[in-house]
Design a protein that fits this description.
Oligomer: homodimer
Helix content of chain A: over 70%
Strand content of chain A: under 5%
Distance between the termini of chain A: 61 Å
CATH architecture of one domain in chain A: Orthogonal Bundle
CATH topology of one domain in chain A: Tetracycline Repressor, domain 2
Radius of gyration of chain A: 19 Å
Number of strands of chain A: 0
Number of helices of chain A: 11
Largest interface: A-B, 38 and 38 residues
Low-confidence stretches of chain A: none
Amino acid sequence: MRLENDQRRAQLLALARTAFSARAYDDVSIDDLARDAKISKGLLYHYFPTKRVLYVAGLSAIAAELVVAVTSIPADLAPIERARAGLDAYLEHITRHRAAFISLMRGGIGSDPEVAEVIEGVRRRMFDTFVVDSPFAPLLIGNPKFEISVRGWIGFVEFTTIDWCVNPRLSRAEIRDLLTEILFEVLRVVSPPVFRTQ
Amino acid sequence: MRLENDQRRAQLLALARTAFSARAYDDVSIDDLARDAKISKGLLYHYFPTKRVLYVAGLSAIAAELVVAVTSIPADLAPIERARAGLDAYLEHITRHRAAFISLMRGGIGSDPEVAEVIEGVRRRMFDTFVVDSPFAPLLIGNPKFEISVRGWIGFVEFTTIDWCVNPRLSRAEIRDLLTEILFEVLRVVSPPVFRTQ
């Protein structure tokens, strides 16, 4: 019986993941989800008491995937290649979930406290990837200018990629190369002078 | 009687402006505001039917002030001096409204659609200041890399300054100089090669 519960929950989560990654929050209907799962709306609400709870669960699954994609770049790549590969993974992910990404970042659901915490969790993992896991880490951790600037660069990435999703005036390669170039300029600006000659 | 209405509305707006700029949204009480205005809560709701409506009105007034401060930098300053002065005005403004700024950008109220529209309006005016009103405008308008990057830089500014308000590890001059330097690096990266020699 326990297993059955878990399977039902996993099935609903998978359906929600698909629905919420293809469509904006407001365009997903609980009636449709229940119909797709071939269960009653009441039973669906037994597993996920509100649409928001189901959304947060689905979003958390998608966010975990994004973090895995961006952070599992081989560590032996050159820093610039790691950055490019991480950005490729990120751009691939948001392109695949385009409508959901725009809805999340621009729509009313984005600052629901639990949803905001999922987004903030992704930012923190991105930050760690570019700071803690960076080959420059030993020299840069604890440097407030550096830490603030990496945070700023994440803001740069979010703003440009939301704009790019809404109005794709650059190719994916162009936006990736732009973001990579900006990252390395930012790193150059905030790095101790010893790095500036590299 | 009409004038009296307008005066009452202006008085309430001024009280709301002060309350919402000193405290987070959830910490402002309509009871306190009505008491300060020496009117009943019912009469207050006659002018502003909900706390959110009053907040949006107060926020719009504060946002308009910010836009005026940032965009009224003398046009005859050198571009880097204009950027520094604009950032000084911005940093002065958010420092003065620190609790409200953090609540707005991080809290639940930030993505209420009307509130989000006020924030987006400020970003658009900032964008215009750095694009349309820029001395580089004739060469840069219509260049998508440039337009996207200015948008990205605004994201950089928002992320770093929220972080700075919460955890001020740099002085105001340091954060201003960092943001200015990043802006000019961004401009350099996206400018036609003719600018790169400047």
